[in-house]
């Protein structure tokens, strides 16, 4: 007897190149009678090359479903109905790398456009992703406000916020992100955080980049030359070291005061997961090979982010580096969406307690009204 197919429609804001979407459309769960899956319906991003990447890899037969433009000008009412919503709202004002402006910054309030989508379509599930630093922005009040608004949106949501360590889920990278899963309260379901499975045996940078070897003809795999000074500096930096803890001659040291980011001219340790790949274009932040005195290629960065080699990125070298660094690892996304589909199908799976507590009764609405109206 053939199984019935149930395809949940997927919409996304701040979609990036498609890391979340790729995991979503690859996720499938089946019971005795039904096959559950997710299909792309619409998405939005404000960066043209990023939209082209998404169109090429996620929805090549439906390119017009990717809406290029500022979310603040997006007509939500014109969008098709959806069952699942995802958004990695901009993290610039919540990141520990920046000034942590939170709601006082340009990007902080943009999460409310996701709340607008939730109120309009009341999807069965949502996934909201951001950097770990979001929990401490504005002395922690910003994150409480975001959780409060997500919980109250639509029909009301049971929310499960958790700080995921991607290296514990088979991603060859120490990437830590807060992901909030919301389940429509009317479904009487509760999402559980899936059990980590590579905590004691993480995937290494060497394994990610060399197994299997990347073909020389692979897309986005151009090796870019570095200056003589940078090459000489890298020659003095051992695997796992950075410009601050390496034994460098004086003429190769950086004269920097204040905060010193650990990833500046840091070589990968081939026997450990990579450090976090970022979308930054600043000097010394591009990720550096453990043996060759050069920056990683974009394809090597994509491998570390768990994108398959046939996922082609559009745009300039800098555009592509930015897309890769800002994305959610597809492997992490797929694990989460499989767990969501299992929740929907009422299939139990090994889980752990969420490590971020949200006791809704402790947060009073008038506090937020006074602070943010």
How would you describe this structure to a colleague?
The structure is a single chain. The chain has helices at residues 19-26, 48-57, 112-121, 141-152, 205-210, 228-235, 298-304, 317-326, 330-344, 365-372; strands at residues 4-13, 28-30, 34-45, 66-68, 84-87, 125-131, 157-165, 176-184, 193-194, 351-352. The chain is an alpha/beta fold and 373 residues long. Strands 1, 2, 3, 4, 5, 6, 7 and 8 form an 8-stranded mixed beta sheet that branches. Helix 3 links the parallel strand 5 (84-87) and strand 6 (125-131). Helix 1 (19-26) crosses helix 9 (330-344). The longest helix has 15 residues, at 330-344. It is globular and about 65 Å long. Residues 92-103 and 361-373 have low confidence and may be disordered.
Please give the structural blueprint.
Layout: E1 4-13, H1 19-26, E2 28-30, E3 34-45, H2 48-57, E4 66-68, E5 84-87, H3 112-121, E6 125-131, H4 141-152, E7 157-165, E8 176-184, E9 193-194, H5 205-210, H6 228-235, H7 298-304, H8 317-326, H9 330-344, E10 351-352, H10 365-372
Parallel strand pairs: 1-3, 1-5, 3-4, 5-6
Antiparallel strand pairs: 2-3, 6-8, 7-8, 9-10
